[in-house]
């Protein structure tokens, strides 16, 4: 069994592997946070933030970011449902993808540059984003008639305990960073990710692997923006 799919690696052969998504998310957050913390000792905050964004993209193989781009083209364009799914499966990107991707990268970099580096905050937010993915797979139907891409290896009823345990872990980790703002950032991020999933259900009939990636990236980004506010 490989635990690398949330990182952008090989797919696992059993849907129960999604139980590890929250733990893998926390591990990625810790890794990115450690790089962020180390880089901040050698470079200005803005450079350290950019390096953290780049490392996150590298660790995930840009898998989730690619899902964000495809989902933006599929959900934001004025198309019928079959055409939306076709657009999301095409290799190219359109104006909606470019705008959404650029906005997210700028928001993540700006938020990180305004915060003091914290492994706990990123571990909590990244754990929450992967927990959200598990929750979407549990609560929302799959949009395509047949599974495609990496998500096909995980189709099936994911363990509910993973959602509960991941949610608690995300709140605790972020709360250890700041007792009120941390959990608030997790909740706000998860809410934003759920809105992406809701739009996908409304416009696509359900989720796809791209939608999972988009929901996770949006959850992390909104969480960072909330955490960086002047509380």
Describe this structure in words.
With 231 residues, the chain is mostly helical. It is 69% helix and 0% strand. The chain has helices spanning 21-40, 45-59, 63-76, 81-89, 95-114, 119-139, 160-177, 181-204, 209-227. It is globular, with a radius of gyration of 17 Å. The relative contact order is 0.18. The model is unreliable at 1-13 (pLDDT under 50).
Q: How confident overall, as mean pLDDT?
A: 90
Low-confidence stretches: 1-13
Radius of gyration: 17 Å
Largest sheet, strands/sense/barrel: none
* Proportion in helices: 55-70%
Structural class, judged by helices and strands?
Answer: mainly alpha
Secondary structure elements and pairings:
Elements lengths: L20 H20 L4 H15 L3 H14 L4 H9 L5 H20 L4 H21 L20 H18 L3 H24 L4 H19 L4
Tags for this model:
231 residues, mainly alpha, 9 helices, 69% helix
TL;DR of this structure?
This protein has 231 residues and is mainly alpha-helical. 69% of the residues lie in helices and 0% in strands. It contains nine helices and no strands.
């Amino acid at each position: 069994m490989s635990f690398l799919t949330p990182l952008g690696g090989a797919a696992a052969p059993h849907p129960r592997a999604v139980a590890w998504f929250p733990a893998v998310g926390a591990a990625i957050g810790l890794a990115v946070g450690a790089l962020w913390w180390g880089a901040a000792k050698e470079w200005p905050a803005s450079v350290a933030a950019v390096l953290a964004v780049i490392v996150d993209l590298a660790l995930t193989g840009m898998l989730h970011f690619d899902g964000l781009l495809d989902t933006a083209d599929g959900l934001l364009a004025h198309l019928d449902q079959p055409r939306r799914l076709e657009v999301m499966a095409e290799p190219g990107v359109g104006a909606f993808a470019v705008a959404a991707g650029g906005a997210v990268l700028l928001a993540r970099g700006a938020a990180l540059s305004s915060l003091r580096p914290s492994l706990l905050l990123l571990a909590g937010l990244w754990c929450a984003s992967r927990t959200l993915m598990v929750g979407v797979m549990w609560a929302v139907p799959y949009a395509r008639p047949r599974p495609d891409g990496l998500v096909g290896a995980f189709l099936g009823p994911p363990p509910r305990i993973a959602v509960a345990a991941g949610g608690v872990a995300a709140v605790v980790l972020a709360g250890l960073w700041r007792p009120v703002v941390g959990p608030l950032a997790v909740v706000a991020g998860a809410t934003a990710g759920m809105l992406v999933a809701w739009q996908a259900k409304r416009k696509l009939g359900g989720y796809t692997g791209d939608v999972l990636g988009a929901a996770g990236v949006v959850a992390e980004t909104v969480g960072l923006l909330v955490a960086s506010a002047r509380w």
